Amino acid sequence: MKKILIASVALAALSPLGAAAAERTLTISVYAFAQDDFKTLVYEPFEAKCGCKLVVETGNSVERLAKMEANKANPVVDLAAVSMADALAASRAGLIDKVDTAKLTNFSKLYDVAKDPNDDGMSVGYTFYATSIAYRSDKMKIDSWADLLKPEYVSHVAFPNVTTNQGPPALYMLGLALGKDTPDLKGPIEALGEKKDDIVTFYEKSSQLVQLMQQEEIWAAPIGRFSWAGFTKLDVPIAWATPKEGQTGGMNVLVLTKGSKNQDLAMQFMDFWLSTEIQTKLAEKLIDSPANSEVKLSEAAAGNLTYGEATAKSLKLIPSAVALDNRAGWLKTWNDKVGQ
């Protein structure tokens, strides 16, 4: 597993946090995404503030949760950034502690949806994203998620595989549109199965969609807002759909490792990450959509992110318990009706 040791850039004696944090090390576990920017915008400034050393471990969620489980008796990681569902899985496994939000000066600034995503007090959201449909506005009109399956459109559609982050949310919204919104997602999966020979591809990486759109092999695809910027650079008219059923999406959260000896420092880092200043810098770099409601963005950044109170309130997120309890069933139904 990749490990980056970031050296302290300020003397503890000069630190606003003082000698209490001197010579201390905080270990965090995060996604590998945009680490050069995180180092510059988040990690190094925090080290300068705390007079401590930050050790950053990266990897996919499976790897990182497995390491937390393996070191449960003697934790190595102090704080982790994971998805809502992974946070609930970690909670069920006894790997994380409650977050004392009274110690977070920036907690009150968060959108309500980010304050306690799993309704258990075990995580705090730091970014979320919308999922909707990117489509060729000169070729089609999208008023409903069900429009993707219209005979005149379906042969120009790419749909996310159920194993991807976008798969279940897109299926959930399709189910709402079809009046088949049970947690097992059986209705929308069966509907896709009936059209599987018409659909261009069940994609696994959103990066392939921009080229397919440019080549006019597809006209529409459900995507996360974080993928939108690439579509805006195409020389064809692309729109972001606002279907009548609404938008779905996902959220990433911060959790504290149970038994960590550095929870006070981890809380300070969590608060720093949630601050208006840091959330603004990350958003302007198009790295994360802000969970802090006080963030004010340029028009260019706002147009490429999931931004604003109205958007935050409108997101229809799959509850983590539903995701965890149904994942195996979703995959089985998908393999039976759509194929691998």
Automatic annotation (TrEMBL):
<dbReference type="GO" id="GO:0030976">
    <property type="term" value="F:thiamine pyrophosphate binding"/>
</dbReference>
<dbReference type="Pfam" id="PF13416">
    <property type="entry name" value="SBP_bac_8"/>
</dbReference>
<dbReference type="GO" id="GO:0030288">
    <property type="term" value="C:outer membrane-bounded periplasmic space"/>
</dbReference>
<protein>
    <submittedName>
        <fullName>ABC transporter substrate-binding protein</fullName>
    </submittedName>
</protein>
<feature type="signal peptide">
    <location>
        <begin position="1"/>
        <end position="21"/>
    </location>
</feature>
<dbReference type="InterPro" id="IPR006059">
    <property type="entry name" value="SBP"/>
</dbReference>
<keyword id="KW-0574">Periplasm</keyword>
<keyword id="KW-0732">Signal</keyword>
<dbReference type="GO" id="GO:0015888">
    <property type="term" value="P:thiamine transport"/>
</dbReference>
<dbReference type="GO" id="GO:0030975">
    <property type="term" value="F:thiamine binding"/>
</dbReference>
